[in-house]
Design a protein that fits this description.
single chain, mainly alpha
């Protein structure tokens, strides 16, 4: 009986350069800043956008470091997710000046909005890339 080979599709065909890493970090930080602003605005109403641009890079740094150093370790990746969420919550608590409970709620909404919007954008990108011609 022949066992099929595991699916192995490389995400990068060339080695990561510092420019590529910086671009990945910057685009992810902007994405997380936009979703942080959406979450804070959803919960708090009218809030300054500059706070979101301080919140966004914090979980982005943790994510890029986790992708670089804990690539093949699911427990380490889950730990990095927990650290990113905790730091996100602390940043929201300090920047928006709300209670811990409300900051935790904004952090939860930020996580949900990021997952939903990221899934939609990834799906649209996958559809565009699979289009013929």
């Amino acid at each position: 009986m022949v066992t099929p080979a595991p699916l192995s599709i490389p995400l990068q065909s060339s080695p990561a350069t510092p420019i590529a890493i910086a671009g990945t970090f910057a685009s992810f930080a902007v994405f997380l800043s936009v979703t942080a602003h959406i979450a804070a605005r959803n919960v708090l109403g009218d809030v300054p956008v500059r706070n979101a641009f301080v919140v966004g890079p914090i979980p982005a740094v943790v994510s890029v470091l986790a992708a670089a150093f804990a690539r093949n370790s699911p427990p380490a990746l889950f730990a990095a997710l927990a650290v990113a969420l905790a730091l996100d919550g602390v940043a929201i608590y300090l920047l928006y000046g709300e209670s811990r409970r409300l900051s935790a709620y904004i952090t939860l909404i930020h996580f949900v909005v990021s997952v939903i919007l990221g899934t939609i954008l990834f799906g649209v990108l996958a559809i565009i890339q699979s289009a013929p011609g």
